[in-house]
Design brief:
Radius of gyration: 18 Å
Strand order of the largest sheet: 3-4-9-11-10-6-7-5-8
Mean pLDDT: 85
Helix content: 10-25%
Shape: globular
Strand content: 25-35%
Number of strands: 11
Largest sheet: 9 strands, antiparallel
């Protein structure tokens, strides 16, 4: 019995210590709460991100500028790139109207308690509380149209639910744009409220 307890504690310690890593890059831990057909419910602990945002009619025109700003922040701190890169798409009021786009980099856990203030005023630090998301996962080198189709599919699956924040969604990329295969892509939609500890 004592031997079993020691082994169990050792396994618990290893799982906590290793955390989330993808291809050598640090990423946020999460728990899978429920698995549904084509998507799952996840709970993320409090996390810290750096972000920048702007309004525009075309995300592609803003994406590279966002990436350069956020990457410069990490480089300035002598930290390697983390994953995923998360982009928020707010709902448009009309097909040709400008929308707000925001890009987020996960901040290394070593900086969560006291993240340095960005020198660029357009870059902010966001501390996100414990949050649940509905998440769909797909692979491949996704085009802009692929991302929209995948987001629409998840929205359709969740249309009967009233606990989903439907005014925005996140496009979530775990792999470098230079990687052409075996990629991990996700769509996240936030759950409005957590009524539990």
């Amino acid at each position: 019995m004592r031997f079993c307890i020691i082994i169990s504690l050792a396994i618990l310690q290893v799982s906590v210590t290793l955390g989330c890593v993808r291809r050598g890059a640090e990423c946020p831990d999460y728990d899978v709460i429920n698995v549904f057909h084509g998507y799952e419910e996840r709970e993320y602990p409090p996390t810290t991100w750096i972000m920048t945002s702007a309004q525009g009619t075309n995300h592609s025109e803003l994406g590279s500028k966002f990436y350069t700003k956020l990457r410069s922040y990490l480089k300035g701190l002598s930290f390697n790139m983390t994953t995923p890169v998360r982009t928020r798409f707010d709902q448009r009021t009309c097909p040709t109207c400008a929308s707000t786009y925001s890009m987020f980099f996960f901040l290394p856990k070593a900086l969560h308690k006291d993240p340095p203030k960005p020198l660029d005023p357009s870059v902010k630090v966001l501390v996100e509380p414990k949050t649940r998301y509905f998440v769909s996962v797909f692979d491949g080198f996704a085009s802009s149209q692929d991302w929209v189709r995948q987001a629409d599919k998840l929205v359709l699956k969740l249309e009967e639910r009233n606990d989903v924040e439907k005014s925005f969604y996140y496009k979530v990329m775990y792999d470098s744009p230079r990687r052409r295969s075996n990629r991990r892509n996700e769509i996240w939609m936030a759950i409005k409220k957590i009524n539990h500890n």
